[in-house]
Amino acid sequence: MKFRIHDNETTWQDFTIRDGDRPGEVIVDTHLTEDVTPILEQAKLERDMGPQYLGKGTQTTMKKLGSLSMTEVVSLMKSGVYYDDKALRKYILDRDRAAFRVDK
User: So what's the pLDDT on residue 27?
Assistant: First the structure.
C-alpha cells in the first residue's frame, strides 16, 4: 500500500507499507520530498540585493551565505554536518549548491 501525506505547501512524505520476509513482519518505507522552487527564487532575490548581514557593526557580524531546505537541514543534522561550522560552510559553498547561495 502506498500513500502520501503533505506536511505543508512545499514538503510531503511518501509511505510504502509492505510485508517483510518473516511471518507477521511489516516494513514501512518513507521518503521525504520538498519543492525547493520558492527557496531558489528567494536566494536569487537576496543575491541580487547584495550581501546579507546579521548584527551589523558588532563583534557578532555574520554574513548569510545561502539557504537550506528543510529536508537538507534534517539530513545535515543526522550526519552531524549541521553542527560543525566548517563542514556546514563547506557544504553551502560547494559548487553544486550555487543556486542556493546568496553571496556572490
Answer: 95
